[in-house]
């Protein structure tokens, strides 16, 4: 049976999986209702990992129906895919959809290695130094490949020269969410509140230069209201802090922010994409107030520069096949992401245009390189 997502009385049921997942809540342990037990894993991590597993069940079914083909020259041994953020996050989810499908197709281990730190640049540096044989791949983002060159004085890699783009996985917006202690319910009310309380609000991000850091700095400059930046290691930590009242707001990935807003633990104010998200159509876009505001994020697959082009093209074809499957496209849409596989040449041009765009954005936001 092909897995699908259904909601029953506030629980997320993945058809084809044995149990329902609770609607995500991030509460301090002392405030959790009796019987609450995350078994050492936060609910949103469980949600995303279970989603990857559900998609994988569908991938396995599709693979089982595919006639056997001659064994290709690549891969002949384990392939490592470096993810520059913690396990259970959005980038990790996209990587696992890819690795699990590839392992099923080739019968070879594809292992995700999470190397978090410094807005994703720690993992990117490790990937850039990896052998150029196709057995180490990297899931890059707007943070690691478009923003980092302009917010860090010294990087352990060159985002253009040291990497070979393979294919995009998906794109998605960030969502401005605020603590329930903030009285604002609309974006205009938020702007008015921030301007009336300059320097008193703080916001969380995944680190300097992360895609959830940049929109906060831009908005702060646009409305003339300083806000304090508090960096975290992951979106999961950001949401915990926001729900716990330790920070006031965040511009985080819609995959993390929207479930919390639906559960009432935070309040959704706006999305950072140029248009409203089909996943949350009632939440306005910031561009409705500030035209041309468009600070979303993207995730894609890279290899160290110098990997043979035949391997690059082979992997790109696999990504296109995996991320074009109707069940994958549908599942990603449910969490606010848009599957966007493309070719190595198209992805290369896209990454370069994004670097040019963010160079201007960072300059206009007056973010000083660290």
TrEMBL record:
InterPro entries linked to this entry: BUG, Bug_dom1
Q: Which UniProt keywords apply?
A: Receptor
Entry-linked Gene3D superfamilies = Bordetella uptake gene, domain 1 (3.40.190.150), Periplasmic binding protein-like II (3.40.190.10)
Top-level taxon of origin: Bacteria
Hey, which family's this protein in? Belongs to the UPF0065 (bug) family.
Protein name, as recorded: Tripartite-type tricarboxylate transporter receptor subunit TctC
């Amino acid at each position: 049976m092909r897995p699908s997502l259904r909601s029953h009385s506030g629980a997320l049921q993945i058809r084809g999986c044995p149990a329902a997942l609770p609607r995500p809540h991030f509460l301090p342990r002392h405030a959790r209702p009796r019987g609450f037990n995350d078994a050492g894993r936060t609910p949103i991590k469980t949600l995303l990992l279970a989603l990857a597993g559900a998609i994988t069940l569908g991938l396995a079914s599709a693979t089982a129906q595919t006639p056997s083909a001659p064994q290709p020259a690549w891969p002949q041994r384990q392939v490592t895919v470096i993810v520059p953020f913690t396990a259970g996050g959005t980038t990790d989810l996209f990587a696992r959809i890819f690795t699990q499908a590839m392992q099923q197709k080739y019968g070879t281990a594809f292992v995700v290695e999470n190397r978090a730190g410094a807005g994703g640049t720690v993992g990117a540096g490790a990937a850039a130094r990896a052998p150029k044989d196709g057995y180490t791949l990297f899931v890059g983002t707007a943070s690691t490949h478009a923003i980092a060159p302009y917010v860090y004085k010294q990087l352990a890699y060159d985002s253009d020269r040291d990497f070979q783009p393979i294919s995009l996985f998906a794109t998605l917006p960030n969502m401005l969410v605020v603590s329930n202690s903030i009285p604002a319910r609309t974006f205009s009310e938020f702007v008015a509140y921030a301007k009336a309380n300059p320097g008193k609000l703080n916001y969380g991000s995944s680190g300097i230069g992360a895609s959830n850091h940049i929109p906060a700095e831009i908005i702060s400059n646009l409305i003339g209201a300083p806000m304090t930046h508090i960096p975290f290691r992951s979106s999961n930590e950001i949401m915990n802090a926001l729900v716990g009242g330790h920070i006031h707001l965040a511009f985080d990935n819609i995959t993390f922010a929207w479930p919390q807003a639906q559960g009432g633990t935070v309040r959704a104010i706006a999305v950072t994409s140029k248009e409203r998200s089909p996943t949350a159509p009632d939440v306005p876009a910031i561009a409705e107030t500030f035209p041309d505001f468009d600070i979303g994020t993207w995730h894609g697959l890279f290899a160290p520069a110098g990997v043979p082009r035949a391997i690059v093209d082979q992997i790109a074809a696999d990504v296109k096949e995996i991320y074009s499957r109707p069940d994958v496209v549908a599942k990603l849409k449910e969490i606010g992401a848009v599957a966007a596989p493309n070719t190595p040449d198209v992805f290369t041009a896209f990454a370069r245009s994004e670097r040019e765009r963010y160079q201007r954005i960072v300059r206009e936001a007056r973010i000083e390189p660290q």
